[in-house]
Amino acid sequence: MSTMKGWAVQEAGKPLVLSEFDLGPLGSEEVEVAVDYCGICHSDLSMIENQWGMSKFPFVPGHEVVGRVTAMGANAKGLKIGQRVGIGWTASTCMHCHQCLSGHQNLCAQSQATIGGGHQGGFSDKVRAHWAWAIPLPDGIHLPSAGPLLCGGITVLKPFLAYNVSPTARVGVVGIGGLGHMAVKFARAWGCEVTAFTSNASKADEARSFGAHNVVSSRDANAIAGIAGSLDLLLVTVNVPLDWNALIGTLAPRGRMHVVGAVLEPIPVAAFSLIMTEREVSGSPTGSPVDIATLLDYATRHDIRPQVEMFPMSEANAALKHLIDGKARYRIVLEAQAA
After folding, report:
1. By C-alpha distance, which of 229, 184, 224, 237 is closest to 207?
2. Angle at 76 between CA 334 and CA 68, to 5 degrees
3. Helices (H), the chain
4. Using CA atoms, how far apart are residues 156 and 216, in angstroms rounded to an integer?
5. What are the pLDDT tens digits along the chain (339 aa)?
6. Rounded to whole angstroms, how far apart are CA atoms 99 and 290?
7. Which of 33, 74, 226, 253 sits at 20 to 30 Å (Cα–Cα) from 88?
């Protein structure tokens, strides 16, 4: 019997409890990874509270895992024992459907999330994943802060990769939080002119320190109207309703509003606001293994690090409360060695 110990949620919204799980035999294409660090994403909180109606209890949260390969199935490829790897939102995909074979594995209909769907996540001593989703970490990457890149990081970089965003583009980032602060850093390093939108005036100087050239209050209709028709890409990282017509109005002709924040309410869009200037509205989840590897290389080369706060794994409940209270600046990482 192979067991893991992790901080599990037994039912929606309840505190995490240190628990033991029988993982069964290692799959032939799986690898087992000893956890060193695990980031906390807002998606963990959404799954803990079952906000999306897809959680299966009990489960161990955590899908921004940094660790070391400790075991490999007979058919696992491309990795070796002791290698440093990262595991993000996806633990496995079918590897034979159209999406998988065309390089869009993250869109596989049979994908297995790392948390909440019968799979145990990274608030633990070990995690399993298909070998293709255990992404080798580049030499020189800062390990303690690398975890948030594996979910939040690829989420905000994905539209740059998918839509061939030019380094001369004007990019807006709505929300300077866990996702948004990374988006500002990525866009600035990409070469773009960056405008940060925030509802919190106290974050203006921080947004500039992350690389924003301009800062606009997302509560100031006049300020938003003042940049109408100027942005090539507007990246929405928040999960709350906004003045969507005003934000779409900031787009230049052929501009795109791309949504990565899990806004639960419908987003109303006036057809003529798109038609007359060929604007687009889109969204995306995380990315394929190649996308994530590209992100890790990009972040390492430019030394782009999420701003993190460290907690020992044993204080996972306190770390979640820190997130719930809106105090995280800007991502939280659990350190397994201190559990």
Report:
1. 184
2. 25
3. 42-48, 98-101, 143-146, 152-162, 178-190, 204-210, 221-225, 244-249, 271-275, 289-301, 316-324
4. 19
5. 589 999 999 999 999 999 999 999 999 999 999 999 999 999 999 999 999 999 999 999 999 999 999 999 999 999 999 999 999 999 999 999 999 999 999 999 999 999 998 899 999 999 999 999 999 999 999 999 999 999 999 999 999 999 999 999 999 999 999 999 999 999 999 999 999 999 999 999 999 999 999 999 999 999 999 999 999 999 999 999 999 999 999 999 999 999 999 999 999 999 999 999 999 999 999 999 999 999 999 999 999 999 999 999 999 999 999 999 999 999 999 999 644
6. 14
7. 74
Rounded to two decimals, the pTM is: 0.96
| Pair of tokens at residue 2 | 């192979």
Q: Are 150 and 62 in contact (CB under 8 A)?
A: no
Residue found under tokens 């240190």: 18
Cβ neighbours for 85, distance < 8 A, ≥ 6 positions apart: 31, 33, 66, 67, 68, 69, 79, 134, 135, 136, 137
Rg (alpha carbons) of the chain, rounded to whole number: 20
Distances (CA, A) of 20 to 9, 47, 117, 264: 12, 20, 17, 33
- Rounded-to-integer distance, Cα 208 and Cα 185, Å: 10
Tokens at residue 42, please? 């807002």
Neighbours of 265 (CB within 10 A): 8
Strand 84-87 with 135-136, pairing: antiparallel
